[in-house]
Amino acid sequence: MNAQAPALRDPRLNRPEPFTPPLGDGGFFQRDRSIHPPAHAPGYKSSVLRSPRQSLLSIENSVSEITGPVFGHNDLGPLDNDLIRNYAKDGDPVGERIIVHGRVLDETGRGVPNTLVEFWQANAGGRYRHKKDTYLAPIDPNFGGCGRALTDDTGYYYFRTVKPGPYPWRNFVNSWRPAHIHFSVFGSGFAQRLITQMYFEGDPLIPVCPILTTIPDKDALDRLVAPLDLNASTPFDSLAYRFDIVLRGQRSTYFENRTAGN
Amino acid sequence: MPQPLNYLKETASQTAGPYVHIGLIPAMAGFDIFEKNFSNVLVAPNTKGERITLEGKVLDGSGSPLRDVLLEIWQANAAGRYNHPADRSAGALEQEFRGWGRGGSDFDTGLVTFETIKPGAIIDKAGRKCAPHINVWIVARGINIGLNTRLYFSDEEAANAADPVLNLVEPPVRRKTLIATRSERGGKAVYSFTINLQGAEETVFFDV
């Protein structure tokens, strides 16, 4: 056996022991900003003029933060989670066919049900279908590059696509993005709102990406890398990658405080 | 060793990037793909409340407008009620008013607009009245984690002066960075805002 062969990460390593406090309706757990990229990260040059310099003002979550938009199946079309078919004009898009699946969880390990997950990506050649993208790789006439899904009762989502290609961008002269898929997730409250990017196990561009390396915490960075999930692949059709997303947990209100005099 | 707590860690944020429109507002990227799209129009014909246009720009540290920024807003209805089960306040719910919208800035001018209604005042858990406000979330290339701020209304001076969140802002001179200015255009109310990411007038952003 080749000792250098990369081990598949067991997705259960991301899981806690069973732990289910009452479903909270208090504020969300304090966000641990040490695992997020800082606003001002000079190695990612675009952040320099676009990063606030004052401290963020910490406020207790009020009803404005613990509530958020609710979405349903009426918001989606039947092909929204099938990027191989949702823009196909005269055939399938070019590229490695893949399934991406996983769960949206909160920090207590509970699945986040019925939440909207949106995703977008470049095509197999690393070109976005966007009027501002001028990379020389061709547009794929059969690939739009976006989709969305609603999680089920357990927080599970899945979609089908082609694996995106890496592409160059202006940061340093020779900066390349690793292959990635952008994710937008809502959760149940507006304070859980999150945009992130999923990367692919084994991509050699990961450790040299000026955007990915804005994340100061090595474990937090690793959690953005989706392992190949051979068990979820479809033989003779598609490989699969697994990507779990964790949103902030929510505190329970065990005892109601009464305002003085009531 | 005490028992392990075994909480999961939140997934790290990453920038929405310059092509955020593809996923969230594909029409702005230049193509049509979904049967149903989300937009910057929150109102339907039956929505109760005063129709308002919210318009503004997000400026970078050089004072230039971001022309690839995306804003989302989240607000209560005219009765001060959010369309979400965790809002148990007394105001009447309007099922067809979601209270959420998203808008991208114009690729030339950087202007972002929303068509919505002015929300009502909100009662917080402690029973305090909070000034009408709209919650704003900002993502773009170069923004590593979405920025949370709020917009209050310039014609709500008394309510703003008593608002528990505005009153946390120190020094008080920074409170004005959260207030959208009312004007009238063709008989309709327009609230204008400028969000400064940096500089002497830097907008107050919240860790929510």
TrEMBL record, chain A:
Q: Which UniProt keywords apply?
A: Dioxygenase, Oxidoreductase
> GO MF annotations for this entry?
ferric iron binding; protocatechuate 3,4-dioxygenase activity
Disordered, as annotated region: 1-21
Superkingdom is Bacteria
**Boundaries of each Intradiol ring-cleavage dioxygenases domain copy?**
100-128
Q: What is one Gene Ontology biological process annotated in the Swiss-Prot or TrEMBL record?
A: 3,4-dihydroxybenzoate catabolic process
Q: What SUPFAM superfamilies has UniProt attached to this entry? A: Aromatic compound dioxygenase (SSF49482)
- Protein family membership: Belongs to the intradiol ring-cleavage dioxygenase family.
Protein name per the record: Protocatechuate 3,4-dioxygenase beta subunit
Q: Which organism is it from?
A: Bradyrhizobium stylosanthis
Taxonomic lineage is: Bacteria, Pseudomonadati, Pseudomonadota, Alphaproteobacteria, Hyphomicrobiales
